[in-house]
Amino acid sequence: MPDFDLSIRGGTVVTASDTVRADVGIRNGRIAAVADRIEGAARSIDASGLLVMPGGIDSHVHLAQPTFGGPKMSDDFLTGTRSAIAGGTTTVIPFATQPRGASLRAVVSDYHKEADGKCFADYGFHLIITDPSPSVLGQELPALVGDGYTSFKVFMTYADMVLNDRELLEVFDCARGCRALVMVHAEGYDAIQFMTERLERAGKTAPYYHGVSRPEIVEREAAHRAISHAELTDVPIMIVHVSGREAMEQIRWAQNRGLKIYGETCPQYIALTADDMKGLNMDESGGKYVCSPPPRDHASQEAIWQGLQQGVFQTFSSDHCPFMDGVDGKRSPKARTSFKWVPNGIPGVETRMAILWGLGVDKGRIGMNEFVALTSTNHAKMYGLYPQKGSIAPGFDADIVLWDPNRKETIRQELMHGACDYTPYEGLAVTGWPVMTILRGKPVCEEGKILGEPGDGGFLKRGISPYAAK
Ligand code: URP
Ligand code: ZN
Ligand code: ZN
Which Gene Ontology cellular-component terms appear in the entry (predicted)? Predict the structure, then answer.
């Protein structure tokens, strides 16, 4: 009887802290040994010339999420997680979204039905709180945190989701009590409404004006307000999808004051700019790049790099939120009347790791260990999955990506495995690419060929985040 089910031999193991030439032995879906030389496995994979890194964890994706009357999201759990594993990501955390008036428990149960038996990658759920009623904050939310849904997101904009300041304070206070980690979408609703109406009155309705309607100042103001509320209620928060210097500096300022404020950024803020939305009419489809906060400019990209290099951002997530580029999505008849109806969000779960490697590690902006921290380890730590996920050491789940740091690829739609009909990164040339993805010891994707099956991925009940309130 062999000692191991699988060995990965001849590669270089890269974790958030170390880079070592080592073999990896896997037994029962877990890493059983990391050693100079491992013999005696039922199957062996030759990883010579490759990096052996923890499978990606994408802690910010939207799959099969209700859009409250807007176009349907193009990825469900099956296609979204298929896309994830093709890009080297083995765990995703999408959002169970509470429509106003709904019970959180019912929302979670329905979302499980969407996911059950369909996933190629492991998954947990964050919650989205839109209606912080006394029963939600008093009973449902604390009970769900105890059941492994240990983080939730709140919105400072979007008519169907926005919380006012009093509600934010109540929710933050509840998070402190039940030790949930709060994710904040920081853009100010009233300022965006004001700007949108002003632009529409001037006939400025093309997709490009989406970015003009929510400039960095709107994000900065909301980030500062969220930080102030967090300080007042003494609760740590994570400000998600930070787009540029203004919000990044607010987070850095708060961190320098000793506050537990964390930050996340995403590929669109290092790879796209507002100019991408400049298809000045709907036929040129600037709508393909419409997301919130919107991509900014090259100076903002540099600020995001500073935030990544200085540790202001703990996580690099995709904010995968896919809509078709057609009449069912970005160019619906309603969306053609104004940018304000273009569904917000872009696909990215499959390209996240290749973009950070290509623009970051390959260009010398960050190191390999920082790459692992930003794409995997820190997500596991932040969201209560560590030490099950997020590293390569005995006892961890054998979630692994074999990475070719020299492989040159051009991102293009024909390489993608999701259901969306475009990638906003079409034509982006990168060096560094995933060649095999392994989920709990099972190779699930090799050279873009899906080997896994729906149902390989399982639900992850998460622990309390060590970054949440003590
Ligand atoms: O435009 C975006 N980011 N849509 C996804 C929803 C969100 O706010 O994360
Ligand atoms: Zn958001
Ligand atoms: Zn999002």
Answer: cytosol
